[in-house]
Amino acid sequence: MSTITAPSHESTTPEAPSGPTAGGTPSVHARYVGAMLYFVGAALIAGAVVHYPIDPPVYTVICAVGALVFLLGTVVNEFVFAAERPTLTRAISLVAFSLLLSFGVGLLGGGIQHFEQFPGRSAAMTPIGLLMSYAAFVAKDQEGRWRDLVSPFGAGLLVVAALTWFGMDALASTMEPAEHDHGTSETSTDQTPADPAPTEQAPADQAPTDAGDGHHDEGHSH
Fold it and tell me: Which end of the chain is less congested by CB atoms within 10 angstroms, N or C?
């Protein structure tokens, strides 16, 4: 009884491709890096736009760094991990609207987080950031169309933004801005030494009077 052996090319199955882009899908580690670039960039922008009045030069640099990090995330997610490379026009649109999206997320997150410290600014930043982020996301998304902005969802988002502005603005008018941890300690330290100055000068002002009284008493004693 003979045994028939199948040809080697029929018995073997092709191995699945390995690596970060196996099957056109990036690995979980690669997706983590791409997501973190988005989140860290947005977080830096959120902190910078709120804290800008405290130290404009420093927070301008932080805002620029956050924008660059977010744009790097756009390049990684939309170009490196993409199954198809976008055209030049699409690439320019992705970069531009990704930058707008990052500032929208930053305004929204920063306005909510620091409402107690900056009530007036936060009342305006939060609804502006909400609308900006939605418009930028629709323009950036491959399936998004401008007609999606003029839709029931877009109208509902506009109502939410308006109610948010009126509510936060009304609440801001009834509250005093809370002291912020950044920079307040330096102000109080600088002002503290100025208060004891008049007390230190008081003995010096009284010295001539005491001396004059001494001479006057001596004159009477003689």
Answer: N
CA distance 52 to 195: 30
What does each C-alpha distance from 63 to 13, 27, 56, 74 come to in angstroms?
A: 52, 30, 10, 17
User: What local confidence, expressed as pLDDT, does residue 144 receive?
Assistant: 74
Sign, CA dihedral 20-26-32-34, equals positive
pLDDT bin (cut points 50, 70, 90) of residue 11 is very low
Report whether pLDDT(198) > 60.
Answer: no
Nearest Cα neighbor of 90 from 78, 80, 99, 81 is 78
pTM: 0.62
At position 218, the amino acid (one-letter code) is E
CB atoms within 10 A of CB 168: 21
Give the whole-angstrom CA distance, residue 27 versus residue 213.
Answer: 92
